[in-house]
Design brief:
single chain; mainly alpha; two-stranded antiparallel ribbon; 2 strands; globular; disordered C terminus
Length: 414
């Protein structure tokens, strides 16, 4: 796959995640300009994430049937229209509705870009590297969103955060249209139909592992987006920072993500996607716990150290848990991508809603509780990895489509 096409696909995922958080620092100004209120501000965030989560699976299945390139192009165009309408919205109602249009475009973009990358991989190792790059570049968007949002709001106004999407979409569409060709549905690549009309025996444990990967991914976004929602509000409402200052205050969470996101694929190839996910969960949980202890401290230095620890964990976890979902169902990349992405976005929407509803609770307590939940999830990931590896030999077993047993020392085998 040409590098320019890989960058175009990654740019789509980058925009999807950017628009989850880029509006956070603009919410106070949106509230003042459009009289949004607390429910209206939450609606601006959730109209995007809920529609995104609801349509990921359908778009993934459509891509498996009719070709993921078509889904991606549609997603970019829909995202463009939604962003344009957002930037021109005169009322909070229209803004929320146009955010829903953005969410529909984001669903098609997220499901299709990951599926196109997964289909191009020749084996699990290459798939891990491509997914790692996709997740690393996209992962930058979560902490970068408040920085860019703060800069744009300070230089212009809240509408500028949506203008940013328009040129990026147009630039990303060019390599996707030029360097890829329409594809139609292909049969399952991993597993043969059984006598009952389903997949082979390997399908059931694989589905159990998609399910677990989805739960972990949902928990990740629940904690991350909920914490970011509270953190950006705390910086402005409690510490009195400007939108730009609030965005810059999250910068320590940005710097480690691309490095550890790219490194995650290499670690996964050595330790396995589940062990790598467990490491990411433990480190990010520790970071959230430290954030809970330092968010109200007079000095920002301790909080920034906590943000760095948190970012290292998230950067390691995100590519690994996405790869775990894709390895579980390689024969249906659109469905696997849609299922994992749905879980992440449902978790993100729930995180914003729950943390916003509990905003009167001590912010540090909520963050510490989220950290404990992530560490608990690490135990589940470790158990999944142990079930895949025979303790006596260290070999990984998997059932081939013809019913024979294949053994490999690669911890990636699902």
């Amino acid at each position: 796959m040409p590098r320019v096409l890989v960058l175009g696909l990654c740019a789509g995922y980058f925009l999807v995640l950017l628009d989850v958080t880029v509006v956070n620092v603009a919410l106070p100004q949106i509230n003042s300009d459009l009289q949004a209120g607390q429910s209206g501000m939450a609606g601006v965030v959730n109209a995007y994430t809920i529609v995104l989560a609801a349509l990921l699976l359908p778009f993934g299945a459509i891509g498996d049937r009719w070709g993921h390139r078509r889904v991606v192009v549609f997603g970019f165009l829909c995202f463009f229209v939604g962003s344009l309408v957002c930037s021109l919205s005169p009322t909070i109602t229209l803004l929320i509705a146009s955010r829903a249009i953005q969410g529909a475009g984001a669903a098609a973009t997220m499901a299709g870009t990951l599926a196109m990358l997964s289909e191009s991989a020749v084996d699990d190792r290459e798939r891990s590297k491509l997914v790692g790059l996709w997740a690393a570049l996209g992962g930058i968007a979560l902490p970068l969103g408040p920085v860019l949002g703060g800069l744009l709001v300070d230089l212009g106004n809240w509408r500028a955060v949506f203008w940013l999407n328009l040129p990026v979409i147009l630039l990303a569409l060019v390599p996707i249209i030029v360097h890829s060709s329409p594809s139609t549905a292909r049969g399952p690549r991993g597993g043969q139909p059984s006598a009952a009309g389903g997949l082979s025996e390997s399908a059931n444990p694989s589905r159990t592992r998609l399910v677990i990967a989805c739960i972990v991914a949902g928990l990740l976004n629940f904690c991350v987006l909920g914490s970011l929602f509270l953190l950006t509000q705390n910086f402005q409402d409690v510490r009195g920072l400007s939108p730009l200052q609030a965005g810059l205050a999250t910068l320590p969470a940005l710097l480690p993500m691309p490095f550890f996101g790219a490194l995650s694929g290499t670690i996964s190839n050595r330790l396995g996607v589940w062990t790598t996910s467990a490491l990411g969960l433990i480190v990010s949980g520790l970071g959230l716990g430290l954030m809970g202890l330092t968010v109200s401290a007079p000095s920002m230095w301790a909080l920034w150290i906590a943000l760095v620890v948190w970012a290292i964990g998230v950067g390691t976890l995100m590519p690994a848990i996405v790869a775990a979902a894709m390895h579980a169902l390689p024969q249906k990349p659109g469905f696997a991508s849609g299922a994992g992405s749905t879980a992440r976005n449902v978790g993100g929407a729930a995180g914003v809603a729950v943390f916003a509803a509990l905003h009167e609770v001590e912010t540090g307590v909520l963050m510490a509780a989220a950290g404990v939940a992530m560490v608990a999830a690490a135990v589940v990931c470790i158990q999944v990895q142990r079930q895949r590896v025979q303790p006596s030999t260290g070999l990984v077993t998997s059932m081939k489509g013809n019913g024979s047993v294949a053994r490999s020392r690669s911890p990636l085998t699902d």
